[in-house]
């Protein structure tokens, strides 16, 4: 027992928990504090650290959009440290949505376009009827006129979207 106790005492007095592998090294307490401070700063900025403690971004899984020649193009970011280039955005805006919808519609057959257009216009009819009912309940004397006006404006948008 005394030997085991002495061994335990020596381990606690001079701790060495492992020997570094090839390419690894032991660091001082000051170096560990510097790394910890850098890691906290990087985490607060939603970044990571490279081997030299330089902050690097992690945009992996995001889609970057860039407008060039009046058209939006996209690229998928798959590598850590891949920064956004000047002019790139990651948020989809109304302009991008409109472009994507136009591209989707352009790939439809004439029959598919007509079916979608008809369904959209039928849906507008239901919405206009609901709008009219709501306005009438609220006492609006021009409920029919307003709902027809809204309906016609929306039908015109659909006709433009589907190329009518």
Order of helices and strands: HHEEEEHHH
* Estimated helix fraction: 40-55%
Poorly predicted runs of 5 or more residues: none
Report, as a whole number of angstroms, the end-to-end distance. 95 Å
- By DSSP, the count of extended strands is 4
Q: What is this entry, summarized?
A:
The chain has 164 residues and is mainly alpha-helical. Helix content is 54%, strand content 11%. The chain folds into 3 domains: 38 residues; 30 residues, no CATH class; 54 residues.
Folded structure, characterized:
By secondary structure, the protein is mainly α. It folds into 3 domains: 19-56; 63-92, no CATH class; 108-161. Helix content is 54%, strand content 11%. The chain is built from 5 helices and 4 strands. It has helices at 2-13, 29-44, 94-106, 110-137, 143-161; strands spanning 47-49, 55-57, 63-68, 71-76. Strands 1-2 form a two-stranded antiparallel sheet. Strand 1 and strand 2 (55-57) form a beta hairpin. Helix 4 runs antiparallel to helix 5. The longest helix is centred in the C-terminal third of the chain and has 28 residues, at 110-137. It is elongated, with a radius of gyration of 32 Å. The N and C termini lie far apart (95 Å).
């Amino acid at each position: 027992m005394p030997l085991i106790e002495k061994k335990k005492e020596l381990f606690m007095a001079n701790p060495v928990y492992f020997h570094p592998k090839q390419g690894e090294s032991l660091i001082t307490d000051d170096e560990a504090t510097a790394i910890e401070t850098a890691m906290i700063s990087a985490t607060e900025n939603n970044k990571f650290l490279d081997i030299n403690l330089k902050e690097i971004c992690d945009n992996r899984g995001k889609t970057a959009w860039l407008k060039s020649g009046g058209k939006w193009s996209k690229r998928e970011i798959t590598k850590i440290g891949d920064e956004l280039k000047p002019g790139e955005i990651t948020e989809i805006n109304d302009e991008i949505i409109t472009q994507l919808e136009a591209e989707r519609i352009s790939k439809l057959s004439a029959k598919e376009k007509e079916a979608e257009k008809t369904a959209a216009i039928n849906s507008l009819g239901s919405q206009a009827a609901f709008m009219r009912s709501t306005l009438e309940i609220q006492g609006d004397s021009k409920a029919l006129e307003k709902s027809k006006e809204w309906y016609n404006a929306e039908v015109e948008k659909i006709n433009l979207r589907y190329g009518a």
